[in-house]
Amino acid sequence: MRRILLSEPIDEMGMKVLEGKAEIIMSPDPSGKTVGFLLKEADGLIVRTATQVTAEMVSAAARLKVISRTGGGLNNVDIEAATEYGIVVCGVKGPQDRFVAEHAVAMIGALAKAFYYLDPATRQGNFRSRFEYRPVGLEGKRVGLIGLGRIGRIVADICIRGFQMEVWAYDPYLDPGSLDGTPIVVVSDMETVMKTADFLSLHVPLTEETKGLMNRKRFAMMKPTAFIINTSRGEIIQETALMEALKSAAIAGAGLDVYEKEPPEKGNPLLEMANVIVTPHSAALTKDTVAKLAQGAAENVLAVLEGRRPSYSPNWELLQRA
Question: Taking the model in full, what pTM does it have?
């Protein structure tokens, strides 16, 4: 019988998909050492975010045919090494889009209304805080989107329809004709979006091109009244540069769901800054989404083991040609 290793527990909806179709091996912890050892006897691996699947791990897993992630981001899997060893890497895209977009918009609202300041001040008995800090309205403010894929478009739609905000976007891979009839302004120069945005929201995958995208130079371009929101991948922002921008008031604040290192180390200055709202990489983790992602990951691993195309894979076509 096929053996499928789970690096961490998944939602019961995913377990039901696997029931009776494979022998399930549950790793006692998600460390690379433990998962790597158990992987040697597995035909498939379902992985979440805590495990980094390395070239060393896949090279030692002679039986392994598929690595399936409960999400769309695959940066914790060495795809190049997996492809070299004929292992299909797949993920699940779609169920999380709406909820990540909602999270980003919620952060825009919370930053605009200064909840990061007014909530603790009110709890501490400082009711006069209502006179000490003036929140800003959203109508007419400009949201700058770096990346206008599925999630970015939902953010744009909510901001335009719900708050009558302007949306300017940069995406070098976008077909401009796909936005005909919408009020979204597509800009060919990324820096123009950064310089003019009141709220800059990042919606790009982590690649060599986007790693460290937000650095000292680009933070210096932003308006001192602007906020940055990141619900994509932590490494897209150079955190040292962000800290400097916040301390020097080069920007007004930040909303972060992702970090360069996860979980962020205790004592990370960003966690102590009053004008930063932080959440624990939870934008996609609604109850419904977690179930759908687990189901999708389970369906993908079985599909590959049965010779069928998974819902999303960066190397399926390449391996089929090979």
Answer: 0.85
